[in-house]
Structures are given as C-alpha cells and as structure tokens.
Amino acid sequence: MSETDFTATGLASNSPVSSRPVSQKKIFVKTYGCQMNVYDSARMIDVMAPEGYAETSSPEDADIVLLNTCHIRERAAEKVYSELGRLRELKAEKAARGESLVVGVAGCVAQAEGEEMRRRAPVVDVIVGPQSYHHLPQLVARSRNGGPAVVETEFPLEDKFESLPAPERRKTLSRGPTAFLTIQEGCDKFCTFCVVPYTRGSEFSRPVSRILDEARSLAEAGVREITLLGQNVNAYHGADAAGRPATLGALVRALAGIDGIERLRYTTSHPRDMNEELISAHAEVGKLMPYLHLPVQSGSDRILDLMNRQHTAETYLGIIARIRAARPDIALSSDFIVGFPGETEADFEATLDLIREVKFAQAYSFKYSPRPGTPAATRDEQLPEEVKTERLRRLQALLSEQSEAFNRACAGKRMPVLFDRKGRAEGQLVGRSPYLQPVHIDDAPAELLGRIASVDIEEGYANSLRGRLVETEAVHA
Ligand code: 5AD
Ligand code: SF4
Fold it and tell me: Cα(73) to centroid of ligand 1, in Å?
C-alpha cells in the first residue's frame, strides 16, 4: 500500500488535553508508516479512553507511550530501537521523580520482532501486533505487574473491529473534514518482496453495515471526505445485509448515498482486483474522486513475474485505458520498486517506458529492501546499493517531472477544494483538490474551513497549487 511518511507525533493538535483535570492519565502515540497505522493509532487511543486515558501530544506528559510501527521497508526496526533508547532515558527520569511510564510497541515491527524485541529492549512493557490492539487495556494492566514485556502477536480469530468502541463512543472520530476508514485488512497475494501477508495476516473485510454506520457517524462529526483503507482495498468482499459478499464498487455506491459525505477515495489497490464494477463506479459515482493509486512496482514482465504480481505491463496499461475511458479526468498514482534482485538495465528501462506511457500525477518510489522471511530476500542476485541509488535517482527525476507538469497544467482550471487547515500566512487557508494537491488561497474567510468551495487555480508548483476563491459560487457544507 502507499506510504506517506506519517511520522507525525501525537496526532491531534485539537484534542482538548488542556481542559482535562491534572490527575487525568495520558497516552502518547507516535505513528510510523501508512495511513492504516494512522487509523489504528486513533483506534488505540479510543480503546484506552474508557480506562481513563486522554491523548497527549507530549511523551513527557504521558503515562503510556506507544510506538505504532511500520516494517515495510528498511531500517524500520532500527528506528524503533533508537526511539526506545530515548524512551529508556525518559522512563528513568520519570522513575527518579516517582512517576511510572508504560512503553508499548504496536504495529508491524512489533509483529515481526516479537520475542526478539523483548530480549533486545527491556524498556518495553507491551508488544502488540496489529490484530490485537483491542486487547491493549488488558495488556497494559498485565504489564503493571512488572517483569518482562507482555507480548501479543498472535492472529486471533475474533474480529478486532467488532471489539472496538462503537463510532459514537470514539474520542478520535474526527480531526477535521477528512477521515480514514479501514474497510479491509491483510493480504493473501504474497508478492515476493512484501512482509504485509506475514505481519497483517490474511485478508479480512468488514461487513457493509458496520462501515456505513461508521461513515454516518463521521458525517455527523463534520467529515466531508472519507478515504477507505485496506492493504488490498479493491479485494474488498465484506458481507452485505443479505450476508452475500459485496464488492468495493457496491460499497462505494452505498457510501455515496450518505448525506454530508461529499468525497470518497480508496487506497491501496491491486491491478488484479480492478474489476468492471469498480471501474464503472468511477464513471457513475460523482462523489468518487478522480484520483487512483494503483501500484505497478515495475514495467518489466520478467520482474513482475519474479515479484509474483500476477499481471504483465500490458495488462496494467489495459486497466489504465479502461479507467481513463470511464473517467477521462482521472489522475493516476503508483508505487515503484527499483533494484529488485536480478533487475537488469533493460528491465529498469521498461519501467521508465511504462511511466512515460501512463504519465503519473503522483508516485512513491523505493529502493528494493530485503525483508527477512520474504522469498525475494534470499535470492542470489541482490543488486549493489550504488545501482539501486542511481536507478532511483533517474526514476524519481522522471516522476517529479511528470507530477510537476500535472500541477502546472492545473493553472486556469476551476476546481472544488475542501478546506481543511489554516495556512502559515494570516488569512491563508489550505485545502485539497480532487487530485489531492494542497491548494493555497489568500484572504480566505475562516468559515470556509471544513467546507468545499470552487477555486480558480492561478498557478501550479512542484507540490502544490495556488488559487483564488470563485466569488459568485455559494459555499456548500
Ligand atoms: N522494498 C522496497 N519497497 C517495498 N514496498 C513494499 N515492500 C518493499 C520492499 N521490500 C513498497 C511497494 C509497496 C509500497 C507500500 O512499499 O512499492 O507498494
Ligand atoms: Fe504486499 Fe503485494 Fe499484498 Fe500489496 S499486494 S500488500 S505489495 S503482498
């Protein structure tokens, strides 16, 4: 799935921490990795709320510090261990003041390291895998008895989503007009480079009714744009009211019927699950934003085969053509890996060719990093670091050229923008375009925050747009 570097700490700047009593217990969560972890962190704060914990944005204030980790690429575990080194000092300082601190590690590094972490980092009190965070209160309680870390990294059969607080009881339901909603987790595709099937387990889809309930609560809390999340979101097959599996296309249509929800997105998809029903939803559901993140990883059929992607470059291009026919203004985004074991210069050139053909509005690209336990990690033909670095540089140069060209071509267009934050300058507001570009406007009325309004785009830059509010357009909620 796509990864934005969410190293944001503490998550909320708008949480009412300061208005709580001084004796209130506090939890600090630091989130690494993908949007699914951002969603999970919010849910962990929710499960601790009934235990009397409020979120804080400062580890120094916290009674519990939790690192919600990501293992998808290299140095993830090392970053976590060095953070744990800092927390060891904090725990010692607090102990000297007679205060206690529970240190927890959640997410995919916890899942992958488990027992090893318990040995290597005695500062850790709780180690909890991504399928078990609804057990956090019990794990924290058990850890208070002292002794070695409490580890829970099994994949339990019970559904963690069902064990989480109902939407209306969630503290973290909305942090503004945009929200993530996890609808599917896990992956059975076993791409040979990827740890996700091992750390997140096999595929699981939440039932339609639960997702609709959560979306309605989000709408009531002021959310206007929902991004549906899953490692393999378009493999979604949750049960509908009749108990039959629903597709993502059907779910999107149902969600589009909710008043207040103006925009829908989904991420991350696999080309193999891009079915006709979903493609036609792009043509027919106006609330589905014209932006699709569809990772291809490589443009070489030989490498795609070694990666076990189970599609060719041509199949990918065919899917793109069908999506563009359904929604001509769609913007495309992708993930790429360079330097997969055995990748030749010709294989790499095939990737550049595919990029030239598709023209991406946005992309994420990575050097191949061997993940312990995955098939590709043990292949003989690992490439030297210099080759990976050089290919990544060439690939990113081409991709940046394309995304900048896409942004520049937006100048002169009129777009609906959802305003979600204040800008740095006085009177400036920032929103997102249908294509996820940040859009800055000056002299904006503050009541626009949380709303969608039409903007005439005046200029496009490398990573953002600048525009002017269309005066005559009524602002809709
Ligand atoms: N090395 C490099 N990149 C990887 N990704 C997943 N596993 C690896 C790996 N071992 C990338 C893929 C995926 C994105 C989320 O991370 O491009 O789509
Ligand atoms: Fe990993 Fe492949 Fe599954 Fe995506 S589809 S999560 S890359 S195994």
Answer: 6
- Predicted local confidence at residue 177, as pLDDT: 95
- With a 6 Å cutoff on the Cβ, whether 191 touches ligand 2 is yes
Q: Which residue CA neighbors atom 5 of ligand 2 most closely?
A: 189
Q: What are phi and psi of 52, to 5 degrees?
A: 95, 15
Kindly give the distance from the C-alpha atom of residue 295 to the centroid of ligand 2, in angstroms, as a whole number: 10
Residue 170 clears pLDDT 80, i.e. is over it: no
pLDDT bucket at 9, cuts 50 / 70 / 90? very low
The DSSP-derived string for 381-419 is -PPPHHHHHHHHHHHHHHHHHHHHHHHHTTTT-EEEEEE
- Does this model's pTM top 0.90? no
Task: Give CA–CA dist 459/411, Å, rounded.
Answer: 5
Q: How many CB atoms lie within 10 A of CB 4?
A: 12
User: What does the alpha-carbon distance between residue 51 and residue 403 come to, in Å, rounded to a whole number?
Assistant: 46
Atom of ligand 2 nearest to the CA of 270: 5
Distance 101 CA to ligand 2 centre (A): 36
